[in-house]
Amino acid sequence: MKLTTMTQVTIDGVMQGNGGASDEDRRNGFERGGWARGKGDDETRTFITQTYQRAEAFLFGRRTYELFAGSWGSIDQTHPIGVALNEAPKYVASTTLTAPRWKDTTVLRGDLAAAISELKAKPRGELQVHGSGALTRWLLENGLVDEMTLIVIPVILGQGARLFPETGPDLALDLVESRVDSKGVTIQVYRPAGRPRYATA
What we know:
201 residues, Dihydrofolate Reductase, subunit A, eight-stranded mixed sheet, 5 helices, 24% helix, Dihydrofolate reductase
């Protein structure tokens, strides 16, 4: 399976608390949640929905898994994203989750790289990661991401957890696709391309 990630970020790289409720994620005094709600036009919403629909399986970090399980997994869903999430197998990278409440969930423990590599070795389909910032960073650092989609919302928050930390490993990216919608939301699809090259004197 191809491993892909999709993350909504602000212009200043924040991914925390993007969802519907302003109090969705208040870690570290974060007060500016809900910044992605209602952003993007119909074309962008269709792109996001179609992305979920093509997933063979989903991979989550624990925090995002519990957030999704509490919304998409807790009520009868007729929305296409809810249908996709509820029908596909779900995998959670966690050392502490013992009793997942969402059907078709497998907790990955032990050698995470080996477990994910085994999933990726399956012959077809797409293993998707949504949100899950710490997991996404780890996957990139370990060379396990095949494609990364960033949905950039035109807002600067000035606080909150960022997708990429201030210091970390470097990575070159090849742009596969780029579009901007009528509300200024951009969608950028990248493939990792090894280490960047730096200019020399």
